[in-house]
Specification:
Low-confidence stretches: none
Strand content: 5-15%
Helix content: 55-70%
Bound molecules: adenosine-5'-diphosphate
Number of helices: 8
Largest sheet: 5 strands, parallel
Shape: globular
Radius of gyration: 16 Å
Length: 191
């Protein structure tokens, strides 16, 4: 069973690389950001609340995310060989919740992949994406806020997994194929 976390600042390419990883290793893809945007599109109660946080570049409260996660961990189709968590955990509290949820099910986090890209490149990628994404958070003001929230709240998650000896940093600059090859080398070393 592979339970992989892909982490990194907004715009680092988590979503793109997750798609490649899912295909190669037959994993289930869990993107909390995509799930939240689906709720927003469907104008559910959760979506309306989430929207007010996301548009400002803030994180959605931890308790709104944990339920989504439990469902994803427990609803794995037979053919899946594990899960890739994309955009989760984003706070140390979420990391603690994840470890508890997995432990209770006799499962383990395999590795956290930290995709590293410098801020200048991140901002340029996100502004470019904003031209077509229609996302309310892909504008300069909100991007800067998200990068700040990442540093303050999400970067400490890396330290949490360093202590567990489950941290791997990946150079996130280069072509999609080059980056994927770096990721495959790390995952294969854990098989
Ligand atoms: P990005 O990495 O580009 O910011 P995501 O799709 O992962 O894109 O997340 C978009 C937004 O959704 C975040 O800025 C945050 O507001 C919200 N979000 C996603 N995942 C979480 C999470 N695990 N905890 C809290 N908020 C989240």
């Amino acid at each position: 069973m592979l339970n992989i976390i892909i982490c990194g600042a907004p715009g680092c390419g988590k979503g793109t690389q997750s798609d490649f990883i899912v295909k190669k290793y037959s994993l289930k893809h869990l993107s909390t950001g995509s799930l939240l945007r689906k709720e927003i599109r469907e104008k559910t109660e959760l979506g309306i609340i989430a929207d007010s946080y996301i548009t400002k570049g803030n994180l959605v409260p931890d308790n709104m995310i944990t339920d989504i996660l439990i469902k994803a961990v427990d609803d794995q189709p037979e053919e899946c060989k594990g899960i890739i968590l994309d955009g989760f955990p984003r706070t140390v509290a979420q990391a603690e919740a994840l470890e508890e949820i997995l432990n209770k099910r006799n499962k383990k986090t395999t590795v956290l992949l930290d995709l590293q890209v410098d801020n200048e490149e991140l901002i340029s990628r996100l502004l470019k994406r904003g031209e077509t994404s229609g996302r309310s958070d892909d504008n300069l003001e909100t991007i800067n806020k998200r990068l700040d929230v990442y540093e303050r709240k999400t970067a400490p998650v890396n330290d949490f997994y360093k202590k567990l000896n489950k941290y791997a940093n990946i150079d996130g600059k280069g072509t999609m194929e080059e980056i994927f090859a770096r990721i495959v080398a790390v995952i294969d070393s854990k098989l």
